Amino acid sequence: MQRTFHRVVRILNEAGAAHMNDTGVQRVLDWAVAELPVPGIVADVRGGERRWFGAAGVADMATGAPRRPGEYAHTGSGGKAFIATVLLSLEAEGRLSIDDPVNTWLPGVLDRNGYDGDRTSIRHLLNNTSGLFSTGMAPELTSRYATRAGFVRHRFDTVAAEDLLRLTVSRPPVGRPGERFEYSNGGFYLAEAVIEKVTGNSLAEEIDRRIVRPLGLTGTYVRSAEDTGYPDPHPRAYSTLFYKDGTDPAAVTPENWESVMEEPGLEPLDVTEFNTSWVPANVISTTDDMITFVGALAGGTLLPAAQHREMWTTVSTEGGNWMPYARYGLGLFEFDEAATGGLTLRGVGGSYWGCLFYTVSSADGDHAVSLQTNTEWKSWDVLFKVVEAEFGISLGG
Predict the structure, then answer these.
(1) Comparing 342 with 7, which gets the higher pLDDT?
(2) H-helix or E-strand spanning residue 156
(3) pLDDT digits (tens, 9 = 90+) for 166-188
(4) Which element (helix H / strand E) includes 265?
(5) pLDDT per residue over 54-110, tens digit each?
(6) What sign for the dihedral angle of Cα 137, 140, 143, 146?
(7) Which long-range contacts (CB under 8 A, 24 or more apart) does 257-266 make?
(8) Pair 180, 132: CB distance under 8 Å
(9) How many other β-carbons are positioned within 10 Å of the β-carbon of residue 384?
(10) Rounded to whole angstroms, how far apart are CA atoms 88 and 86?
(11) Element housing 123 (H / E)
């Protein structure tokens, strides 16, 4: 009788804790819409048998249609984790080593403008310690989308893979390989080229074969270079991520970019239809699928043990103008346990025009939350407050 009583109390306590988490996460969603502002936001939660979905705001500012479960959205830099997973899977098969120099697979591609393809490894590309400059800030790319007028003019431009590789080495290194962290899309353009060289297949084929089908993902695919839309259902995407008129893109750096952005309060631009052939991996997914994917990576059920350890061998991001409280693995991040009170939390995410998509999981993969907004990064507080509410922690506190 006493054992039964304590079991009932435990069940009631767990149910109450889950309800408190749900209430707390919903408050964050409501706050994001009311205060930042974010047009629409969703949070999808999985914890054991518990499932919860919350939303605030709208999927379409013109019609007022609400956000809903199962919407397709771009994963942004979350695609980097897909690239890293494919490469580690190839390593497990003995087809390459992530410590191979880039020149082993792409001879001479990196040997220009001060870079050295013999000293830069695949690992350096995947953990952003290659010394490559912050490719996303390259004027050749940002000038297309830097202003509202430029975005409208260039939104359907396709960027060829060979142009991305040239862009990757268009500025001198910011450091020696392995010396420091600098977040750079260019490393992942190179990593994608390695995959296609080793396998003879497209990245899309390898992601489908090694990730989508094994995990049973039903809403995840690599968008083709020509595709600019989404399947239904999907939210409209809205952006205010534009420079002030007259800004010289060549003068913008990872340190000063926030100071040249448009003044707050301007009407968002609908950027839903947009060619994203320059985004690493270019993956479209759903919050439900991303919970499955990130849970498998966090818990080690998709990759062999050796590759799982490599994926989660992290480097400091200090000084790299990136997310606070985080260390970087291979294409993904782990919150610093000093900031989480000792709790291991692992995640995948990214943001760009009209989209923010982050998924964070416990280390065993059993408890995860996936967050998506139909506008870009507004404040790290959006992610941090959701993580704090769902996992019962205080980041940095």
Answers:
(1) 342
(2) none
(3) 999 999 999 999 999 999 999 99
(4) none
(5) 999 999 999 999 999 999 999 999 999 999 999 999 999 999 999 999 999 999 999
(6) negative
(7) 257/137, 264/240, 266/240
(8) no
(9) 20
(10) 6
(11) helix 122-126
